[in-house]
Design goal:
8 helices, alpha+beta
Length: 249
């Protein structure tokens, strides 16, 4: 794959910077095939949902709250909010009603990560999942009805951070990670609905750089030993970015 410069920035260094599945032990899941990154899926350039999975060696349930605090706290240093928007505790499986749910609000109304995690994990069980929402800002394009004028602004999206007990939904953490981060739509990194001019390329580059830096920080600051960036439909963001920028094999 050649290094392609589009409107002044090099695409290859970002297309090759995304976290890959590694062969290290992921808390008892060594040897699993990371099929999500390898499947070939014709998406027709539709938007996809982007996730990051984190694994920790020999993670005990009692250590999960500290990992969640570390992950949530990293957002403020990489374009995110300093406070948690909401917390939800799911028992046994996603089909069950939450046993705890609080919406704190945005900005100063939110709760600091440590306090939010402490409240939610008072009910610490190995078959529960602990979900938190926190704001994260990216450049987003707004196209006028006539399609002639594109306005750019930093918009906050809510990211879901979920810590899984080992028995939740028959061991979801083995496949989805001890902690899973749901970033939402990948559209902000590709901007496929608009022309890739100098402005669009610059904002896409800033969004991708912010994602790369955040995923690295989440792994390092929480002490994860393996990470995997993956999409709901199966095609990696790096592959889609390469296709968007016209990079050749």
């Amino acid at each position: 794959m050649r290094d392609t410069a589009v409107h002044g920035w090099s695409a290859r260094r970002y297309a090759t910077s995304f976290p890959r599945c590694e062969s290290r032990d992921r808390g008892g899941t060594a040897g699993r095939t990371c099929f999500r990154m390898l499947r070939v899926y014709n998406l027709g350039r539709m938007s996809d949902t982007l996730f990051l999975s984190l694994w920790y060696p020999n993670l005990r349930l009692a250590a999960m709250p500290d990992k969640l605090v570390a992950v949530l706290s990293a957002f403020a240093r990489h374009g995110g909010a300093a406070r948690v928007y909401s917390a939800t505790v799911w028992p046994v499986s996603w089909s069950e009603a939450p046993v705890f749910q609080m919406v704190y609000g945005r900005g100063e109304r939110g709760l600091e990560p440590k306090q939010a995690v402490e409240e939610a994990t008072e009910l610490l069980h190995d078959d529960y999942a602990y979900e938190f929402q926190i704001g994260w800002s990216l450049w987003e394009a707004e196209v006028s009805g006539a399609g002639l004028d594109t306005r750019w602004s930093r918009e906050e999206r809510l990211v879901r951070v979920t810590g899984f007990g080992p028995l939740f939904e028959d061991g979801t953490f083995e496949q989805d990670g001890h902690i899973r981060i749901d970033f939402g739509s990948d559209a902000a990194f590709l901007d496929e609905e608009i022309e890739l001019d100098t402005t669009a390329a610059r904002h896409a580059e800033e969004n991708v750089r912010q994602l790369v830096e955040l995923t690295g920080a989440l792994e390092k600051e929480s002490g994860a030993t393996a990470r995997l960036l993956w999409s709901e439909l199966g095609e990696s963001l790096a592959q889609k970015l390469a296709a968007r920028l016209g990079m050749e094999n």
